Amino acid sequence: xxxAGLARxxxxxxxxxxxxxxxxxxxxxxxxxxxxxNQMSQIIRAACLSVxxxxxxxxxxxxxxxxxxxxxxxxxxxLYYHQAAPSVTxxxxxxxxxDSAADIALFQQLAASKKAxxxxxxxxxxxxxxxxxELAAWAETNEISTPILDDExxxxxxxxxxxxxxxxxxxxxxxxxxxxxxxxxxxxDAVDAVGTxxxxxxxxxxxxxxxxxxxxxxQHAQISYGQDVAPILxxxxxxxHTEGGLGxxxxxxxxxxxxxxxxxxxxxxxxxxxPWHADPHIGVWKNxxxxxxxxxxxxVHWIENGAPRGAGSDPLAETKFxxxxxxxxxxxxILDIPEYTVPASGVVDYQFPTVANPLDTGVWIKAASVKPxxxxxxxxxxxxxxxxxxxxxxxDRLEFDNYLIGYAPGNESHTFPLDTGVxxxxxxxxxxxxxxxxxGREALDQSKIGLYFHRExxxxxxxxxxxxxxxxxxxxxxxxxxxxxxxxxxxPALLHDLVPHAHYRGVASKFELELADGTRETVLSxxxxxxxxxxxxxxxxxxQIAAGARxxxxxxxxxxxxxxxxPDPEREVPWGLQSWDEMLYGAFSxxxxxxxxxxxIHDDAFANSSKFVGFLDKDLDGKVSWRELPKQFKKRLVxxxxxxxxxxxxxxxxxxMQVLTQRMRxxxxxxxxxxxxxxxxx
Length: 682
Ligand code: HEC
Fold this sequence. Notes:
This protein has 682 residues and is an alpha+beta fold.
């Protein structure tokens, strides 16, 4: 039952009754995943170090390396995702090359005729003259249905030697080698020939040339390790890639960087590192750690040129990054989260330890920081407080009275917006939810949380909530399943930050603001969501929310076998805490424009109904119709629905839902009261 979990702050991370057989069966496959990763990176690390000098262009020439690019709509595409496809065909495109229009039309026809048999087709745009908005408009006008990959750094096109609009490049996913290169006339035969003994001869292609101002090898030879490359690494990578840091290896000097250079190139091409996955075209973020296009070009061109040491000092060896215990400074209060021994393998149930609040006065918290004891096993920690009157049931359901911070790697600290805070009254307890993932050795974890207090009462409440749908169900083998829910605001507010969250099958995530007049604005898009990284995206300028506006959260799940993280594509996946289940869960924080700590205006009942309507209202028309109600509610409501539907429009809006929830709660309490004397429970 998730209902009660929606109360209060609404962190509905219910403990699901785990089917223990299922858990056991799956554990082998899933829980060893981190070990595999770990071992793999060690093996690769060893390999990298032993072939130090192989990191030259020639090593990249034989096969097309993996990449991730966003298309004109902002959707991410990964080349190696198509491993099982019979072929992948790319046509180079640039809107200024009008001559290739007829060829593009033929390419579209070819794509349409081969799609059903699993062949993949992309347009690839390396042109610096086209931006995404222009590409989207061009695609619309020309009725282009093939995704146009927007190669903004030109790095992917350079390495593919894709320099002339209209040129077709056919790849064999078995080897990732180019099997054909030339005009569209031969493309059909070339696609058919992939994986057969036939060969369609490539031909020099005389298409419309596209400018590549950064591609000249002589320029790459000018890139200095000490002056150009190392400073970028220091700025964007070393915070984690340092001794004892979060990253699996330390960028401690030139030799380490050289050894890892093929991998650095790969993680930049696939947008895996730095771990910042927001679409750079949407939103401006306080904690943006992404690379600029120029930075990515500098590093990759330097690597492709053999990663030479060059003259001068080695900044990475000379200035060491200082690891500090508490990045925000010495906390006002440090709490030891009760220690826990994580077994070497198997599935560990979520832990919900508490610590009695040691303070005898109320405090306003302005920031929190989590220090995981053993980083390898701590998957995430949620921290908040519960009042003295919290029942065991509420505690089990993780119903925080105040939510403080969600830790995951890369999300260690959170400072609330200026002059806002979370009030923690004396008494009560701090409550934690810890998710551990065994890593092949027994590990004793002793994590800590540091809290920072306001000296004076802040002006406003820092409020946090979630857009959730605990009724989700993801069909087996579906590659792009979408789930949507929303939260409607009853008062003008400022939106401060967003946290998309999903599990192994989550591949993309989006938040939009919809005004009462139906206009929508995307405020965050994470087109290649990475389960390893649970990031908070903090706006530089808080987003203004009008009364009646909705925050719509969408997540796409890949439950197909092509998703390498998917533990079981045959399974219909329900909501659940563990990573092999799924969540539609988008956390957000806000302040009310008209609220002060002297005069609170938050309406709990409204907030709960808003959330509830927000996931039941599948057609987003603002009310829950009978058809949209899940079965379990229908049964209870056969007579009640129309009684609650005061305006008689066949659907329940948020206000009507409030009445309904009140009635259901009373009903449940009555049932409970009737049961108690009979069972003698509690
Ligand atoms: C917030 C911390 C963080 C930052 C910043 C960061 N990394 Fe990483 N990096 C990690 C972690 C953790 C992993 C392993 C898990 C993963 O790949 O997601 C990793 C993995 C890697 C790997 C793969 C190594 C392996 O053994 O799998 C490379 C290469 C890498 N990072 C390079 C970089 C570069 C280059 C930058 C800067 C442009 C960077 N990282 C920034 C934390 C970070």
